[in-house]
Amino acid sequence: MTSEILIKDKEIVVPGQELARGMDYLPTQGAFREGELILSHYLGIASVNGRFLKVIPLNGRYIPKVDDTIIGKVIDIGFYGWMLDIRCAYRAVLSLRETSSFIEKSEDLTKYYDHGDLIVAKISKVTKQNAVDVTTKGPGLKKLIGGKILEVTPSKVPRMIGKQGSMISMIKEATGCNVIIGQNGRVWIKGESSDKENLVSDIILKIDQESHIDGLTDKIKKMLESKK
Length: 228
Fold this sequence. Notes:
Blueprint: E1 4-5, E2 12-13, E3 18-21, E4 26-27, E5 31-34, E6 37-40, E7 44-49, E8 52-57, E9 69-77, E10 81-85, E11 92-95, E12 118-126, E13 132-135, E14 143-144, E15 148-151, H1 157-161, H2 166-175, E16 178-181, E17 186-190, H3 194-210, H4 216-226
Parallel strand pairs: 4-8, 11-13
Antiparallel strand pairs: 1-3, 2-7, 3-6, 5-6, 7-8, 9-10, 9-12, 10-11, 12-13, 12-14, 15-17, 16-17
């Protein structure tokens, strides 16, 4: 059988759709092989990178992976640490020993992180039973103070960041805002004015809605230039 790709890069595909035929192509994330065919797992955006095919889902909840940087929200405080909502089916645990400070068990833990606080953390462990551990030991891992929070589709996060950080760097440089994008689809924005924060919010939401459309980078540039 002759090998051939049956879809275009960035084409929207549906579950079970044939992406390629033959053994010269390899399925990766969101795609699978069935005999000579490579099929899509999801409703999503097809990506063709040489011999490798993947499908980025258009929606769906966050699936935690070790080394992901996420933004968690404190929803409970226990004797040994904090429970965080990380926008998935499982809560994450930040234990006392995984914070950047030495904290005694007898201390009032709300002095460090209280209910409702937002924390930039890194996923350190995911067990087979889907228990998730996080840490705040590391550069940039901290409690977030002030600013504005958005929730977007986790699968769109790579588009918001861009290749080698190109998209988010362009947004930061043009607006002067501090922007942190968690792999779990939470975005924190803090700028010198609410107008700047609102502009970044509009841009992030536009990327969330139009990540599959060609020419998106040029649209974002025009949005930024029109507000100078």
